[in-house]
Specification:
heterodimer, A: 430 residues, alpha/beta, D-Maltodextrin-Binding Protein, domain 2, 2 domains, 3-stranded antiparallel sheet, 46% helix, 14% strand, B: 315 residues, MetI-like fold, two-stranded antiparallel sheet, SBP (chain A), transport (chain A), Bact_solute-bd_prot1 (chain A)
């Protein structure tokens, strides 16, 4: 019956799609004042679990203390359903007034003219004074501010202090080159060989697209062009993957067979590898999965040991172009983005609060303080905005992971990987 | 002809027709919930998906007609070839083994005098829960490198499982999933058991008197008389096998991995439709599946004429 169900789902989507019709939005003069007793009704949607929903309820109660006559009709879905529902609404020009967006979808929606340019409210109803320019730029598409980040993080290298202490290996430093990293991995492998289970330096760290983006950024090269095509060629991908060919071919990385078996944990989260490369917010997950608070964080190594880093927005707030209440919506965005009380409710669960005032309001857990300390330490190195990701990016990232797994199993070589990645991107980005 | 026309009573005729119309209407009225469901939820969407399979459709923008392009793309898509291969292997190996297991256990149960009800329920149980998410998770835990399967294997002198166990070895994930489906032999087993009860015992007794051994009795009495049931089970299980999704999705964490070794057809279809938003392409894949399953069913029906014997049949 799977075929039937699939067909039914496709058909339902088709029917909903046909119901879509476009209507031109009337230009709206952005207000600069919003009286606290103004009456309005707006809809607001986010993704997440019940815990997050509870926090949003608290935050919106605070909002209503300030603006008692603005009724906020709430709705939330889990991540997957969220996009199915939003895509359908987008097709019917019926998006909620205010909605939570992800960097991977922002460009796609903005390109279709689904969002209001919040730039018109900047300095008026929307205060973005506390935001770094590089961060605001990650919410800017075609010169319009379409998303205001609620939190941010940055690419990092995490290390398990418990393991390294046990093996007597010194912690990695913030000035390591790629050669240092390779030597370090071998050093951990050697120290951990007699351990049961065997401890490794790291899993193959060319296995994810964000790592490739980081590497491109160091070279000052773009990843995607303005119109969403790849700004790199197959040779670039091959070079990147071959940079760790020795470690890979000699079996010096954490074995892929075991990564697959432990999935979704893998080497680092399973407590059997010392290093992990990911966005800084994920330190909370690392601490809870490994069951230790002794996780350190430094910049991921680069060719020359110096770094170019970028603000990576973790959640953005957008206002729909079809909103009947743009002013009230902008006020809600401003409130959620800036209110220290709201930041105190969410902590760093939406990423580190972008403003100093917001970060100060958070009662820091251990993971928050590791994350915030790292973000403070790299502040002067954040000179870039995270690249705007084209529509279809999510699938490309997933494809990179799948192909890399085939590479590790020896089914394909790096050239075949690059070739298949490009034929896939051809379809997804074309 | 002319005589019958004259003999007809127009008034009575009309009354009869009216009564017939009334009962037809009532019949449709009772059928209507099902008909609504069929046209609204099955036939309509299927026709829509047939149309979408000739379009480029990403959910966002209106579908654009591109003729047979989606179907042409299937021919050069290496992932599609891999998905077709994995699914074919699963059907070709999984179904016969499962049916053989079902028949073997059904025959053992049929001959047992005591506790038949208990054993029947016990063996049937896996097919009720086997398709569930929790069993797939347990199955995965059993086959990783320090799982129960590796431990038992070592007791019997097997070499210690490599890193990751069966789960991490692309050569062994498909056998692992085939074992999972074979273990769910309960449903065909119950049907076989019912079929075995229909075989008259006099036939066995007569054959035994004539000196036929157990093997001979099996091939010359049991199999021919059971062939309609065998055919039914074969058809059902084959179609069922083409639709494997849940267990593969759970065991590979939705990736079709490791190294595409569990990239079943329906899983790949799901990726294209709901991850990559290529609904046109996914629809084309769905229709290819419908056609292939249809053709295989047709082949089975055709072949059944030569090996399925219905009692009372002269052939």
């Amino acid at each position: 019956m799977t075929t039937m169900k699939m067909a039914a789902a496709l058909g339902t989507v088709a029917v909903l799609g046909l119901a879509a019709c476009s209507n031109g939005g009337t230009p709206h003069e952005a207000a600069t004042e919003f009286a606290p007793d103004t009456e309005a009704e707006i809809t607001f949607t986010w993704w997440g679990n019940d815990e997050r929903a509870g926090w949003f309820e608290e935050a919106l109660d605070l909002f209503n203390e300030e603006y008692p006559n603005v009724e906020v009709v709430r709705n939330f879905n889990p991540w997957d359903d969220y996009w199915t529902a939003r895509n359908t609404e987008a097709a019917g020009q019926a998006l909620p007034d205010v909605l939570m967006m992800d960097a991977g979808f922002l460009g796609e929606y903005a390109d279709k003219g689904l969002f209001l340019d919040l730039g018109a409210y900047q300095g008026g109803l929307l205060d973005t004074g506390g935001y770094a320019d590089t961060l605001l730029e990650s919410g800017t598409v075609n010169d319009q501010l379409v998303g205001v980040p609620m939190g941010y993080n940055a690419w990092s290298m995490m290390y398990n202090k418990d393991l390294l202490d046990e093996l007597g290996v010194p912690y990695p430093t913030d000035d390591m080159t790629l050669d240092d990293l390779e030597a370090y991995v071998l050093q951990v492998n050697q120290a951990g060989a007699a351990h049961d289970p065997k401890i490794y330096g790291a899993s193959d760290y060319t296995g994810g697209f964000p790592g490739f983006i980081y590497s491109r950024m160091q070279e000052g090269e773009p990843v995607f062009t303005e119109d969403g095509a790849p700004a790199f060629d197959e040779g670039d991908v091959v070079d990147y993957l071959d940079s760790v060919a020795d470690l890979r071919d000699n079996g010096d990385f954490y074995p892929v067979e075991r990564t697959v078996a432990l999935d979704p944990l893998g080497g680092f989260l399973g407590g059997e590898a010392a290093l992990w490369f990911n966005f800084s917010t994920t330190v909370a997950q690392a601490m809870s999965d490994i069951g230790t608070e002794n996780i350190g964080m430094v910049q991921a190594p680069t060719e020359n040991g110096r770094h170019v880093l970028a603000d990576h927005p973790s959640m953005l707030l957008s206002v729909a172009a079809n909103s009947d209440e743009p002013d009230a919506s902008a006020v809600l965005v401003d409130f959620l983005a800036n209110s220290p009380e709201v930041k105190a409710i969410f902590g760093a669960s939406l990423g580190a609060p972008p403003t100093d005032e917001g970060r100060a309001a958070v009662e820091q857990s251990t993971s928050d303080s590791v994350d915030f300390a790292y973000l403070d330490a790299i502040e002067s190195e954040i000179t870039e905005s995270y690249p705007l990701l084209p529509s279809g990016y999510g699938s490309i990232e997933a494809k990179w992971g799948e192909l890399h797994e085939q590479l590790l199993y020896g089914d394909i070589d790096t050239e075949q990987l690059a070739e298949e990645l490009f034929s896939e991107m051809d379809m997804l980005l074309g | 002809m002319a005589g019958t026309t004259i003999a007809r009573d127009p008034v009575r005729d009309r009354a009869r027709r009216r009564a017939r119309d009334r009962s037809t209407r009532a019949g449709y009225a009772f059928l209507s919930p099902w008909l609504l469901g069929f046209f609204g939820l099955t036939a309509g969407p299927m026709i829509a998906s047939l149309y979408l399979s000739f379009t480029d459709y990403n959910l966002f923008t209106a579908p654009t007609f591109i003729g047979f392009e989606n179907y042409q793309r299937l021919l050069t898509d290496t992932n599609f070839a891999q998905a077709a291969k994995v699914t074919a292997l699963y059907v070709v190996f999984g179904t016969p083994v499962k049916l053989a297991a079902a028949l073997a256990v059904a025959m053992l149960l049929h001959n047992s005098r005591r506790g038949q009800g208990f054993y029947r329920s016990a063996y049937y149980l896996p097919s009720l829960i086997g398709g569930s998410v929790s069993i797939a998770i347990v199955w995965k835990a059993m086959f990783i490198d320090d799982g129960i399967v590796a431990q038992i294997g070592q007791v019997f002198g097997g070499s210690p499982a490599a890193d990751g166990g069966w789960v991490g070895d692309p050569g062994r994930t498909l056998p692992m999933l085939i074992l999972l489906t074979v273990w769910q032999f309960g449903a065909p087993m119950v049907i076989f058991l019912a079929g075995l009860k229909q075989v008259p015992t006099e036939m066995y007794e007569a054959a035994e008197v004539d000196g036929a051994g157990p093997v001979r009795r099996f091939w010359n009495i049991t199999i021919p008389l059971l062939s309609p049931v065998l055919f039914f089970n074969l058809l059902l299980e084959t179609i069922h096998a083409f639709q494997i999704f849940n267990s593969a999705f759970i065991i590979s964490n939705g990736s079709g991995g490791p190294a595409q070794s569990t990239l079943f057809y329906t899983l790949y279809l799901y990726f294209r439709g709901f991850r990559d938003f290529q609904m046109g392409y996914a629809s084309a894949m769905a229709w290819v599946l419908v056609i292939v399953v249809g053709l295989i069913s047709l082949l089975l029906f055709r072949s059944s004429k030569s090996w399925v014997h219905y009692s009372g049949d002269d052939k």
